[in-house]
Design goal:
The protein is α/β, with parallel strands linked by helices. The chain has one domain: Aldolase class I (TIM Barrel, Alpha-Beta Barrel), CATH 3.20.20. It has 16 helices and twelve strands. Helix 2 packs parallel to helix 4, helix 9 crosses helix 12 and helix 10 packs antiparallel against helix 11. 48% of the residues are buried.
Length: 356
């Protein structure tokens, strides 16, 4: 059943429209000020940064998406080649299936076999933590792929909509705190498309979490994917479709998170579709930007060459946008003017938060 679900997630993602219907990531309400006299050359722009003890070529990562099936193995191998070639981090999808079926481990471990010199991030769901995943099992997740960190994904919306979901979150905070303080691996807490609020970030910081991935609304809608999976089950399909636009838009979630702490490493995912989105996310307070759907679609449809082209395009656009704001690097970008209007400004005003 888990293998079937994982393959369905891949196939629906690459073959169907699985993005939000009305709600966007709110980046259209962010405007960077064009500088006609940048006083730098495009070739001067530097985007290297540090992450998990590595120097990476750009503040970009291939977000964890899949694993556990033959199709997932092929995709992970392609994406790992891209990550290694370009020099950026890569994550895998939930490794729960690998704990239950060791024969699927290769679909995850292939990432480290191929991507030997970049950060690799493991993945497990919050529901498994609640249900009693031991510290030993948690660390095994990291060991099986020689991970540099392990992401625990929060997906209460998806679990509540899945026909076979496990929407069990009672007692999660205390169990997260134990793992964060006792695991030998750094822990990343990531949402999967509904965003993190400042209230959630405060709780995470209090228990020692230092890396978060906002996983905001406006990109892939797992509600839409679950509606597609429900097919002729009218009950589950109707509910999933009603929640298609649920969540905190990515741009708003970045600001929410950064208002809580300047010390956390903040990863922005959720509808990042070009390098301009990345620069807006970085200016709002993100440290890295993660890309998922465009990469899995490129790998599926065009293999390694297409996936490589897509990520190189993102990074080239990122550099051009920095150049056009007169920013020689991300640090100097933080000092550049920014305009925020429309629904994002209303969100900021209503929530009484500010752009740092």
């Amino acid at each position: 059943m888990i293998e079937k679900r994982k393959n369905e997630h891949i196939l629906y993602s690459v073959k169907e429209d699985v993005e939000f219907v009305c709600k966007t990531n709110f980046f259209e309400y962010v405007e960077l000020v064009h500088i006609s006299l940048p006083e730098i050359n495009l070739s001067d722009v530097r985007v290297e940064t540090e992450f998990l003890g590595y120097t990476i070529s750009a503040p970009v990562m291939i977000s964890g998406m899949t694993g556990g099936t033959e199709l997932a193995l092929k995709i992970n191998k392609i994406l790992a080649r891209v990550a290694e070639n370009i020099g950026v981090p890569i994550g895998v999808g939930s490794q729960r299936i690998a704990l239950e079926k060791p024969e699927t481990i290769e679909s995850f471990s292939v990432v480290r076999k191929v991507a030997k010199n970049v950060p690799v991030i493991g993945n497990i769901g919050a529901s498994q933590i609640v249900k009693g995943l031991s510290l030993e099992e948690f660390d095994k997740i990291g060991e099986m792929i020689k991970a540099d960190a392990i992401a625990i994904h929060l997906n209460p919306l998806q679990e509540a909509l899945q026909m076979e979901g496990e929407p069990e979150y009672r007692g999660l905070v205390k169990k997260l705190e134990y793992i964060v303080k006792n695991s030998s691996y750094p822990v990343i807490i990531k949402e999967t498309g509904a965003g993190l609020s400042s209230e959630v970030i405060k709780k995470l910081v209090e228990i020692g979490v230092r890396i978060v991935d906002v996983g905001g609304a406006g990109g892939t809608s797992f509600s839409k994917i679950e509606a597609l999976r429900a097919k002729d089950n009218v009950f589950y399909k109707k509910i999933a479709l009603d929640f298609v636009d649920w969540g905190i838009p990515t741009a708003a979630s970045i600001i929410e998170a950064r208002n809580v702490s300047d010390d956390i490493t903040l990863i922005a995912t959720g509808g990042i579709r070009n390098g301009i989105d990345m620069v807006k996310a970085l200016r709002l307070g993100a440290d890295l930007c993660g890309v998922a759907l465009p990469m899995i679609r490129a790998a599926y449809s065009g293999g390694y060459g297409e996936a490589l082209r897509v990520l190189k395009t993102f990074i080239r656009e990122l550099k051009i946008a920095l150049f056009l704001t007169g920013s020689i690097n991300v640090e100097s970008l933080r000092e550049k003017p920014i305009l925020i209007f429309g629904l994002l400004k209303e969100w900021i005003d209503e929530r009484k938060i500010t752009v740092k």
